[in-house]
Design a protein that fits this description.
This protein is an alpha/beta fold. It has 14 helices and 11 strands. It has 2 domains: 245 residues, 3-Layer(aba) Sandwich (Aspartate Aminotransferase, domain 2); 124 residues, Aspartate Aminotransferase, domain 1. The chain is 40% helix and 13% strand. It binds pyridoxal-5'-phosphate.
Length: 421
Amino acid sequence: MEPNDEEPNYDYVTKIMTEFQQHLIERANHHLGYPGNHDCSRYMALSPLLQFNLNNAGDAFKESDHGLHSKKFERGVLDWFAQLWEIERDEYWGYVTSGGTEGNLHGLLLGRELLPNGILYTSKESHYSIFQIAKMYRMDCEIIATLASGEMDCSDLRDKLLINKNRSAIINVIVGTSFKGALDDVDLVIQTVEDCGFSENRFYIHCDAAISGLIVPFLSQVPKKYTFKKPIGSLSISGHKFLGCPMPCGVQITRKRYIGTLSKSIEYIATLDTTISGSRNGHSPIFLWYVLNIKGHKGLQQDVEKCIKNARYLKYCLEEAGISSMLNEMSICVVFERPPDQDFIHHWQLQYFKNMAHVVVMPHVTVEMLDNFLHDFIWKRKIWYRCGKLQPPCLAEDIGVSNCVCLVHGKKKEPLYHINA
Ligand SMILES: *Cc1c(COP(=O)(O)O)cnc(C)c1O
């Protein structure tokens, strides 16, 4: 849509923008498969800030003569996250990034600079950015197998660590995998590296908590699993996913001593810039600060509880309808059979992989949306599978035998007399 620049035509622009807003409202109401929270109307209150061109270039803790920045808010946000992940104010360093990917770029860079001969270990269900980064940084990468839940298989990690005992280990621990919402077990990872004979100065752990970094800390029944009290080096989240900032952003937190007292090459970065990108969004720290204040711990906890409850509801309804599905215990990603209809996938904006599709039950997803989706899905399945004459795919390999209800695996759970009765 090329701008019409012959003469200013406000009516034309207004009309296009109104139509576009209508389109966005429709798309947001059918947005189920991608991990963004589209409950964003509250940010309208910040619209006066659009009058200012804000840039937080450089280190968040260094003031500059350039006055149009929001570093005061940025440091406030960082302090909040540092507290959440249990690292003292004078011991951490961090910044508001452009998203989870930049956090990974920074965390893995620190790992590589601290342990230049290190091998990157990451599970096969890692976000694609991790594999891109390994390539960009020319790091040797060992891909670790996963369990049916999607979490890293630490026995495979052990085997691969033992083969490469002479080289340091940089380990990417995923806090909420992109597809199944699985949590890598950080305690088991640490125990595994230590059992394999790696001392603390020979391994570095980066936690990619893009999706679940703001879910796990608010689950009251779970002990705090991810914390700087354990030997982890860095942790990053996305601000536009669960938290629902209207523009991509994220937070990266690491140990200050890694930034301040690193080897020559990091000093080189530190003098130039401690962050990955130069100019940085000056609005996003204010948006983060705003939503953390508006919601507070209590509001976030309510969001988490609501989403977990709604995800369980969706899983229950799929199960009742005889559809293969899975939901990890502390996850909002409901995985089920991939619909064989591209229009349906597009309509509900589902993500899919192999035989699986998923819905990410974010705070904007209401029970009504889920009911509409279920109704549509169950009705269309009758057409796709000709009322039972054709069979939906077997998902045993993707989500485990116990979650699969295909003709072969479904019967095991439900004895025949039960069906006939
Ligand atoms: C989304 C995601 C990322 C990337 O985050 P962006 O904010 O999109 O850059 C990284 N890791 C995981 C596990 C993710 O789900």
